[in-house]
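Amino Acid Chain and Its Fold in Token Form
===========================================
What this section holds: a protein sequence and its matching fold, both as plain text.
Structure line: whole-number tokens from a learned vocabulary of local backbone shapes, matched to residues.
Purpose: to set a sequence beside its fold so the mapping can be learned.
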Amino acid sequence: MAPATSVALIPEPVPRKRALMVDGNAHINAIISRVLRDEGLDISRAVDNQTVLSLLKDRPYDLVITGQHTDGKETSNCCGPSGTFVRTSG
């Protein structure tokens, strides 16, 4: 009789949730991004609408957090249907 062999099952890695933090105030942007990163999210940051549009074109986000105005424009108009949208002021 052949000896029994054991097989180690390696679980699939769980993908991290992705968040986009948008705020024209770099200090606020950094603080909120740090808190979210500490909670296990993969964070991208933007301080202007041009960067937001570029990032959203490149990849989807599970969460977009933004101040009401960035570059003097309504940021919610440029975020589209990319996951959950949260406005931090206004």
Summary: The helical segments are 26-38, 49-58, 76-79. Residues 30 and 62 are 19 Å apart (CA to CA). The mean pLDDT is 77. The domain at 18-87 is CATH 3.40.50.2300 (Rossmann fold).
